[in-house]
Amino acid sequence: MTLNHVRRGSGSPLLLVHGLGAGWRSWSPVLDALAESREVIAVDLPGFGETPPLTGEVSIATLTDSVADFIREQGLDGVSTAGQSMGGRIVLELARRGIGGDTVALDPGGFWSDRELVVFGATLRPSIALVRALRGRLPALLASPVGRTLLLAQLSPRPWALSAETVLPDVRGLADSPGTGAALDALTNGPKQQGAPAGTVPGRVTIGWGRRDLVTVPRQATRAQALYPDAVLHWFERCGHFPQWDAPEEAARLILDGTD
pTM to 2 decimals? Predict the structure, then answer.
């Protein structure tokens, strides 16, 4: 399977991997800023955007395989990678496998305790069911600060301050993407993220975390850094699960500073 993707800008290549939601469009708030300095390649994972779902098992391992295959097919050996949420977990898994170059992971999944994992599934599944039920009304609801606050309180500490243009692609993607359910099952039912001993990753590793993330809660950052001891941890203040929503300039700068 060849992943649907877009390329923007010029310079050293930077591969972007999204989480649950809009596919490559999840990066829209930072894409232009990144493309001013890099050739940005943003992919749609299987089952998201315009890439068809996997025909076999859907797991973090097989989703990572699809990105690794894309890197090989596109001649991107040693490419720097950045990912958010599930995509953050995937780029860390690539680094653990020795694939790619520098890595930036924003609020990655996979580092929860058993209890936190139960809460993650129990809160996110109803949220996804709600946006699916409201699919036809999402543009109008998200155009209102009150609507954004009601729908996005789990994802952002200041949803009323975000624009509808920023959040609509990801929220609509949660409702529409055929891969959402299978990917969520992979996150909640599959193994937790493995680590990489010091000195085994192919480049620098930077982990960014929102201090007010209610999806992958901040205490998970300690576990992530313990499993990836080469990683540098960056905190986004007043930021939730989507740094590209709440702090787009800071997120773009972190990605650029953390990759070559």
Answer: 0.97
